[in-house]
Amino acid sequence: xxxxxxxxxxxxxxxxxxxxxxxxxxxxxxxxxxxxxxxxxxxxxxxxxxxxxxxxxxxxxxxxxxxxxxxxxxxxxxxxxxxxxxxxxxxx
Length: 92
Hints:
Blueprint lengths: L2 H44 L7 E5 L2 E5 L1 H23 L3
Antiparallel strand pairs: 1-2
Helix pairs in contact: 1-2
């Protein structure tokens, strides 16, 4: 095997690793932003009283939503985001 071929092969492998790393960093950044956003929503929900109205954005329309349903949705999203983050940190 020539030195030039080994260098070309190593260079190709390095480029693949760089691309994979960039993808992982992008995914992690997106998940961090989603986690932060959902944790802020959870904190806001903790301050609600039973008389406060909660709305969900569906397309261009705000639709009323039950507080308990909204809180459950946020908790579920937080669990999902955390599990996705663990996959990004430790890909198989």
